[in-house]
Write a structure and sequence with these properties.
This protein is α/β, with parallel strands linked by helices and about 425 residues long. Helices cover about 30% and strands about 25% of the residues. It has two domains: about 120 residues, Immunoglobulin-like; about 230 residues, Zn-dependent exopeptidases (Aminopeptidase), CATH 3.40.630.40. A hairpin with a 4-residue loop joins strand 3 and strand 4. Bound molecules: zinc ion.
Length: about 425
């Protein structure tokens, strides 16, 4: 079982032998079907997208408009397709991406970006002449209205018992049991941006924002929880996509006082480096801040989440409590800037404001930190190294503790106590 799971594309000849073994009655059970290839080509009347699999699989197809996308949700798979060289534009498919994604019973998602509206025909074909299973999606031209009004497809259950039950991510990592704590713990939620099929900012040297911020978030948590007064939850603790609204819900569910979203940017100019700190505002403090918020808010779009998500979040804005948490968020941002200044390079006017969807929780003090620029070699080197990470963690803890230690700080009392 383990052996099969670890087969890579290079050893496909071995896979062939195993499949033959299977055919002659030696059961080679694989826990997760392997996706060995993804192919597509253009016909006169349709574009065909094919996923090659070693076994049957549960799947579901969704179509989305504005922009046009087709989403393939899969049960747990072992993805063995090399990610380079296969994503060139074919027919109506402009681009496609893949990644882990927790959604109902599905754990994996492929999103196709389409040039226009389509209707789809989907087949799961059994092996023919020793071939592998093929999930075939044919895309034919359609109209925008037809695509919008199409009822959602019922999930197709095919697997025997290879599908893992829906796995909720455990946010409450066990951690150390605090021994001497006066009063309730102060809850901090750290949100590593992006994840799964949304890599965030990327560089030519294959540094992904989603990986960089996850490692740093874990370091911040570890360091802050050395203080038994604090309890830290991460919105994700592995490489998986979490929709923006859910990130906020995690903070609220855990009654977080502080919510810190971690990001790193990449831009054309390689010379620019340094940290910046963002709080929520309906009116952006600069053109750059507005553009950055728009970029970060695209996360749900990248992962093929329906467009209504951030609209819902926008409605929360009307809450009165928002004003109070916005004032405290700015104050917390100033504590962060002061503390990080001793360790890191900070951009001019480091406190900026814009309409970041992930900061729109009405009752949580929320700040988004852009840790630096992956496009700058010095920042990229620092952000992926251990010693800088540890220094950043120390500065983060200093900021949180000194903010919460102010007289009348809203940390333990919660925002209800604020006047
Ligand atoms: Zn980001």
């Amino acid at each position: 079982m383990y052996f099969l799971r670890c087969i890579s594309k290079r050893y496909s000849i071995w896979l062939g032998i195993l499949l033959v073994a299977k055919a002659v009655g030696i059961t080679a059970v694989c826990a997760e079907p392997i996706v060995s290839n993804v192919r597509m080509w253009e016909h006169p009347d349709k574009t065909r997208f094919v996923v090659d699999l070693t076994d049957k699989i549960d799947f579901e197809i969704e179509t989305l408009t504005n922009p046009y996308r087709l989403v393939i949700n899969l049960a747990t798979v072992n993805w063995q397709v090399s990610s380079t060289g296969v994503r060139k534009k074919t027919g109506v498919v402009q681009n496609w991406r893949n990644g882990h994604f927790d959604y109902k019973n599905f754990n994996y998602r492929i999103v196709l970006d389409l040039s226009g509206p389509v209707k789809e025909k989907v087949m799961l074909l059994a092996p023919a002449q020793g071939n592998r299973y093929r999930l075939v999606v044919d895309l034919m031209p359609s109209t925008s209205r037809a695509m919008r009004s199409k009822p959602a497809m019922e999930p197709i259950r095919n697997q025997r018992n290879t599908s893992r039950p829906f796995k909720t991510i455990k946010f409450a990592a066990p951690g150390r049991k605090p021994e001497f704590v006066d009063g309730p713990q102060i809850v901090v939620v750290i949100d590593p941006g992006h994840g799964g099929m949304d890599p965030g900012a990327t560089t030519n040297s294959r540094i992904y924002e989603k990986h960089v911020v996850l490692v740093i978030a874990k370091a911040f948590k570890r360091r802050l929880e050395l203080n038994p007064k604090y309890k830290v939850y991460l919105t994700r603790n592995k490489d998986i996509y979490i929709r923006l609204r859910r990130r906020i819900a995690i903070a609220r569910k855990n009654k977080a006082v502080l919510f810190v979203s971690l990001h790193a940017d990449a831009i054309k100019s390689k010379n620019i480096r340094g940290m910046s700190f963002y709080t929520l505002s309906e009116k952006a403090s600069s053109k750059e801040a507005a553009a950055l918020a728009e970029k970060e808010n695209r996360s749900d779009l990248v992962a093929g989440v329906k467009g209504t998500e951030s609209d819902d979040v926008t409605k929360i804005l009307i809450d009165l409590a928002q004003n109070r948490s916005m004032g405290e968020s700015s104050k917390f941002a100033r504590y962060l800037i002061k503390s990080f200044r001793s360790t890191a390079k900070i951009l001019p006017n480091p406190h900026r404001q814009a309409g970041f969807a992930v900061l729109k929780s009405p009752d949580t003090i929320s700040v988004l930190i852009e840790l630096g620029f992956l496009s700058n070699p010095a920042d990229a080197r620092a952000l992926t190294g251990k010693s800088y990470r540890e220094r950043l963690s120390e500065a983060f803890v200093d900021a949180v503790v000194s903010y919460c230690n102010q007289p009348n700080a809203p940390c333990s009392a919660g925002l209800e106590e604020l006047n």
